[in-house]
Amino acid sequence: MESRRSKWQHDLIVILVTVAACTAVWFVKVDFGVTHPPQPGKKIRARVLEVDNSGLTTLGLVETGSQMLRVEILAGEHKGEVFSACNQLRAQLELDKKFVPGDTILVAMLHGSTSDVILNAQDYYRVGWTALLLGLFAVLLVIFGGLTGFNALLSFVFSCLVVWRLLVPLCLKGINPMLVSLVVICMLSAVIIFLVAGVNRKGVTAFLGAIAGVLASCLMAWLFTTLFKINGAVMPYSLSLLYCGFEDLSLADVYIGGIFLSSSGAVMDLGMDIAAGLTEVAAQNPNISRRELIWSGIRIGRSVVGTMTTTLLLAYSGGYLTLMMMFAAQGTPPIDFINNPYVASEVVKTIVGSFGLVLVAPLTAIIGGFVLHRRS
């Protein structure tokens, strides 16, 4: 009974510390040197009542022109009022929207607008569905995982806050993106692992093993990005970022930081799996030698590494499925396919992430052999 009470107290302390950390990160404001002019209006939710497609022209697979709308404002001081709105289509299939009556959309409204002003239709309003999706995920996680699931939810929130409030602004401020990504991953690994596993030998083993794997991924990413001569411009919106006033930003360093940031979750997962397995082995056989304990961890890692590396491959290739389909449809020869900069960047990202996974298994096993070994 006393042990259970002590565990609850320990979990409560860790939860409170994590909540305090989330609050602190939320209020952090990093000035990255670019001032934006004040917005002349605001964006507000509206419902489409009528559409007029007579101003649209079909050009092959795309449409161009102006779609005129009648919309009802759903929030703010103009709630319930009906306005005209214009939706401009630019023959860009990935960006254009064609609204129909009943759609909930986002419109831009100038301050002091009246009913005779034509508003600018921006996009579909997705905040409600996003909140619903996140809510369902949180409820399912807590119901299935209990206190551990709640801790995992806290770590999820903390990760989002750290990436958005610290990682992105610090990179924009001009600090080396590789260094920022490495520090952020160490911070996230500590919070996530110790929040889920607790501050104990198992948590220390998983944390040190994950950091060792991340450091190996960082080194491999830097080396092979240089050898493959990838400049980072293959990332989406990279050129737009440079034209926004950040022309001194090193896209190659951002690309490298993104490689081991994207694979760090799988590295933490594998490190925790091996640390948990070694903890059980040491608990069931207190007289096991350090050498045998290390080999037990290596055997556990062998069973997991194969599926984890395939997970990374499928995750990365799924994002570029249309790219592969386009090359296949054009009958591109293998030499052109491999040397394409987009394909080369994905090869480096996948293989380097897999390197980190393969290395974290023996490294965590060795660390666990020294941290968890206790001879009776």
Q: How are the secondary structure elements laid out?
A:
Layout: H1 2-26, E1 41-52, E2 56-59, E3 62-73, E4 82-90, E5 104-110, E6 118-124, H2 127-173, H3 177-197, H4 201-228, H5 238-243, H6 251-284, H7 290-319, H8 321-330, H9 334-339, H10 341-371
Parallel strand pairs: 4-6
Antiparallel strand pairs: 1-3, 1-5, 2-3, 3-4, 5-6
Q: How does this structure look, described?
A:
The protein has 376 residues and is α+β, with helices and mostly antiparallel strands. It has two domains: 85 residues, OB fold (Dihydrolipoamide Acetyltransferase, E2P), CATH 2.40.50; 198 residues, Up-down Bundle (Multidrug efflux transporter AcrB transmembrane fold). 63% of the residues lie in helices and 14% in strands. Strand 3 and strand 4 form a beta hairpin. Helix 2 packs across helix 3, helix 4 runs antiparallel to helix 6 and helix 6 packs parallel to helix 10. The two termini are 25 Å apart.
User: Which value, in Å, is the CA radius of gyration?
Assistant: 26 Å
Mean pLDDT: 86
Question: How many domains comprise the coordinates?
Answer: 2
**CATH domain class name of the largest domain:** Mainly Alpha
| H-E string | HEEEEEEHHHHHHHHH
Please report the total strand number as a whole number. Answer: 6
> Can you tell me the residue ranges where pLDDT is under 50 for at least 5 consecutive residues?
none
Number of helices: 10
